[in-house]
Amino acid sequence: MSDPLDPPTNAIADPLMDVPAPDAVTDKVLIDATAAGTVTVVINRPEKKNAFDAETIAALHEAFETLQTQDGVRVVFVRGAGTTFCAGADLDWMRQAADWSESDNRDDAMMLAKMLKALHDIPCLTVALVEGAAMGGGAGLVAACDTAVAVKGTRFAFSEVRLGLTPATISPYVIEAIGARRARALFASGLAFDADDALNIGLVERIVADSEGLDRARNWISAEMVSAAPGAVAAAKDLVRHVAGRNINADLLDETARRIAARRVSPEGQEGVRAFLERRKPAWTV
Fold first, then answer.
1. Domain total of the chain
2. CATH number, domain at 251?
3. What is the pLDDT of residue 93?
4. Does pLDDT of 95 surpass 60?
5. Contact 12, 226 (CB under 8 A)
6. Which of 8, 36, 186, 273 is deepest in the core (most CB within 10 A)?
7. Average pLDDT value for residue range 251-260
C-alpha cells in the first residue's frame, strides 16, 4: 500500500498561477502560487527564527486579506523559511514595546489579532507546515489554520505567563483547536511540549519525519484539494463555525436543512451530483 504522503502521479504542476501576490511591503513574507491553486505563504526571517515584528505581521495581514477574495486559490500553506516555523515575538520588538503606553500596546496587539483573524477567515483550506519550533504567537498561527502538519520533535509553547503576560490575542484560535481545559493548563503553566503532544491535543493532525516529509504532505494535500469544490469548501468551513457549540434543537435542524438544500441547488452541487451519476470528473477538477 502506498504512503498517503507520496505525491500522486497527477501532482500539481509548479508554474506560477495567474494570481497576483499582494503588494508586498516587505521581503519578510514571501508568496508562491501554482497554476493549480496552491499558495504557500512563507515567513522569511530565518536569521530571526521567523519571529514576529510589526512589519512581518502587517505583511502577513495583507497577504491573508488578499487571499480571502482571490479566485482560483484551492489551498493555502503557511510555513517558515529555514528550519524554524516561528519563534514568537522578536526580541527587539519586545524591547521597544516595554516603553510603550497601554494604549500603544493595545494598538500593537490589535495588529496581531487582525492578522490571525484574516488567516482564520480565508475560505479555502489552510494548512500550517511546522518544524523546529512554534512558540507563543507562532503556535497561535498554527491554531488559526484549519489543520497542521509538524516535523517530529518540533517544540511548541504558550510561555507568555513566564514573562508576566498572557496569550490573549491567540487565545480564540488555540481554545477552538484544543479545547478550554487543555488551553488553561498550557496557558497557566507555560510548559513546552513536542509534536507528539501537539498531535494528542489536536493542535496538529499529522507528524512527518523531516522537512522532506512536509514537502510530500504539501504535494499530497494540494492534489487532494483539487477534487473539492471551492464553494463547498468555503460553505463547509462556515457550517462548522455556525454549528459548533450550539444546542441540537429545532432551530439548528432547520438551519442545517436550509444549508444543504441551498448547496443541492447550487451550480456546484448540481454539477457534482451529475458528474457522480455520469461517472466523470466534475468541472472544478479540470
1. 2
2. 1.10.12.10
3. 79
4. yes
5. yes
6. 186
7. 96
Residue 23 lies in a domain: no
Report residue 150 as a C-alpha cell.
509538524
On whether both 267 and 129 belong to a single domain, the answer is: no
Residue linked to cell 511546522: 130
The overall average pLDDT reported for the chain is 90
CB 237 within 8 A of CB 146: yes
- Predicted TM-score of the model (pTM): 0.89
Using DSSP, state whether 75 is helix, strand or coil: strand
User: Looking at the domain assignment, is residue 49 inside a domain?
Assistant: yes
Question: Based on the domain organization, do 115 and 158 belong to the same domain?
Answer: yes
Which residues form the domain of 53?
29-225
**Of 138, 166, 165, 160, the residue nearest 150 (C-alpha):** 138
Among 62, 76, 78, smallest CA distance to 114 is for: 62
pLDDT value at position 90?
86
Q: What is the pLDDT of residue 8?
A: 34
Judge whether 254 and 143 are in contact, CB under 8 Å. no
Please, which pLDDT band fits residue 99 given cuts at 50, 70 and 90? Answer: confident
